[in-house]
Amino acid sequence: MLKTFRGGIHPPYNKELTSQKPVERAELPRLAVIPMSQHVGGPCEPIVKVGDHVKVGQKIGEAKAFVSAPIHASVSGKVVAVEPRPHSSGTPVMSVVIESDGRDEVYEGVQPPKSLDEMTPDEIKSLIREAGIVGMGGAGFPTQVKLSPPAGKTIDTIIVNGAECEPYLTADHRLMVERPDDVVLGLRAIMKATGVKKAYIGIEDNKPDAIRAMNDAVKGFKGIEVVPLATKYPQGGEKQLIYAITGREVPSGGLPMDVHVIVDNAGTCAAIANVLKTGMPLIERITTVTGSGVKEPKNLLVRIGTPVGELIEQCGGFDGEPGKVIMGGPMMGASQSQLQAPVMKGTSGVLVLQKSEVKAFEPMPCIKCARCVDACPIHLMPTYLGKFAERGMWAEAERYHALDCIECGCCAYVCPANIPLTQLIRLAKNRIIVSKKK
After folding, report:
1. 171-178 and 180-194 helices cross at what angle (nearest 10)?
2. Is 240 helix (H, G, I), strand (E, B) or coil?
3. pLDDT, average across residues 108-137
4. Residues 336, 60 contacting (CB under 8 angstroms)
5. Which of 407, 3, 380 is closest to 204 using CA atoms?
6. What is the pLDDT of residue 436?
7. For this protein, what does the record note about how its cofactor is bound (predicted)?
8. Does the pLDDT at position 302 exceed 90?
9. 315 labelled binding-site residue
């Protein structure tokens, strides 16, 4: 019996477009637009100015806050601007713009560290922080912070998220097939940094080649187990993954550490491995460019700061009339209004849909079918939360645990009345958070 969670849905996965396509190295961007905010927490402060020449791996953004992560140049060349630029969030963000010189010169300070066996836990965490490693599944939480739980929070289990449940996306899938040893090396570093002896790698059963590759890679390493999971969305959600693998339930308002677990993405593990092997900080990632709206869907190893439009060009350009370009997947991604927004540390995919696929739905009154309640993986009452949001009843929404919503989109997906429940709950969450800050 495959492990899974309660609730969830089975949308069309459409992964066959790229699941068997090996990762290709993308061309260097002509202009790398590198936002100073690519993570949860405080944005970085630019430490370069217009006219400076920078090299690959050189720090260009300093993290001043504890919950933050430094940012590095992904290309060598001249800094031509330090100013707000388009961002996937839709709001311009302070960015360092580098005109690539095409030479791809590596910064002199990028040197391999000593071996993992020789490093102390604190040295591992310091290396991870200085390399700018963050969660690469989309959330972007600084990894060093995650590996440093507060006093009183004990961790006994590490889970590597290899589920990749979002439709269309295959970046983690190809990573686990092509570089399984890197995933294991990064996991071993996390285990040593936290002193944890037990780890699981969760992979949905629609990726049998990845399961085989990871099983081969963990042989000989005590305490690491590959766990096949049922294919169901959102199996890759932290709370759903923890419940499926361990049976532990993260409490309302809680974090994985409240049930003694840390969850890290497979891409995050591989990024840690790359730092251990080369000393190179996080300057690139695998991104799936896919959908009916591109001529040749691909998995690309992309430099951070590459504009989305350039990636689409490298996949043959648009196929037909584009209707929507989404940063991420169709369930949790963000639609883009322009193609200048750059790839960031958490950009696992770029989805292009043809205009014929994008339909406008007219919301109708709720018919009280409770499909949204059955589908919600957090066991909320989406129909109530949607009504509270429509009426501005923020206190009531908070009492019904709106802040626990993971915005997975399951409720809106199954609603026969076409009510935009996810968007309404997101509005309620924002209003609640704003009121708390006041």
Report:
1. 90
2. helix
3. 96
4. no
5. 3
6. 85
7. Binds 2 [4Fe-4S] clusters per subunit.
8. yes
9. no
**Contacts for 87 with CB less than 8 Å, ≥ 6 apart:** 35, 37, 93, 95, 341, 342
pLDDT tier, 92 (very low <50, low <70, confident <90, very high otherwise): very high
Residue 108 has pLDDT above 90, yes or no: yes
- Residue 376 is labelled as binding a ligand: yes
- The amino acid occupying position 108 is E
**Per-residue DSSP letters for 33-71?**
EEES--SSSSPPEE---TT-EE-BT-EEEE--SSS---E
- Calculate Rg over the CA atoms of the chain: 21
Q: Are 57 and 39 in contact (CB under 8 A)?
A: no
Question: What whole-number percentage of the chain has pLDDT above 90?
Answer: 95
Other Cβ atoms closer than 10 A to 102: 11
Residues 6+ apart with CB under 8 A from 232: 4, 5, 8, 9, 10, 165, 204
User: Residue 366, annotated ligand binder?
Assistant: yes
Cα(344)–Cα(134) distance, integer angstroms: 11
CA distance linking residue 18 with residue 21, whole number of Å: 5
In the beta sheet, which residues pair with residue 318?
Answer: 294
Cα(172)–Cα(161) distance, integer angstroms: 9
Residue 31: its pLDDT value, please? 97
To the question of whether residue 44 is assigned a binding role by annotation, the answer is no
φ/ψ region of 390 (left if φ > 0, alpha if ψ in -120 to 50, else beta) reads alpha
CB 72 within 8 Å of CB 58: yes
Cα–Cα distance for residue pair 222/385, rounded to 1 Å: 46
Judge contact between 282 and 42, C-beta under 8 A. Answer: no
Whether residue 410 is annotated as binding a ligand: the answer is: no
Grade residue 63 by pLDDT with cuts at 50, 70 and 90: very high
**411 annotated to a ligand binding site:** yes
- Give the Cα separation of 376 and 371 in Å (integer): 9
- Determine contact, residues 394/388, Cβ cutoff 8 Å: yes
Tokens of 113: 């560290």
The position carrying tokens 């958490």 is 346
User: Is 408 labeled as ligand-binding?
Assistant: yes
Give me the CATH topology for the region 120-278: Rossmann fold (3.40.50)
Contact 324, 335 (CB under 8 A): yes
pLDDT of 139 over the 80 cut: no
Q: Where in the chain is the domain with CATH 3.40.50.11540?
A: 120-278
The whole-angstrom separation of Cα 121 and Cα 113 is 14
- pLDDT at site 304: 98
Confirm or deny that 405 is annotated as ligand binding.
Answer: yes
Strand partners, 61: 46, 71
β-bridge mates for residue 303, sequence order? 284
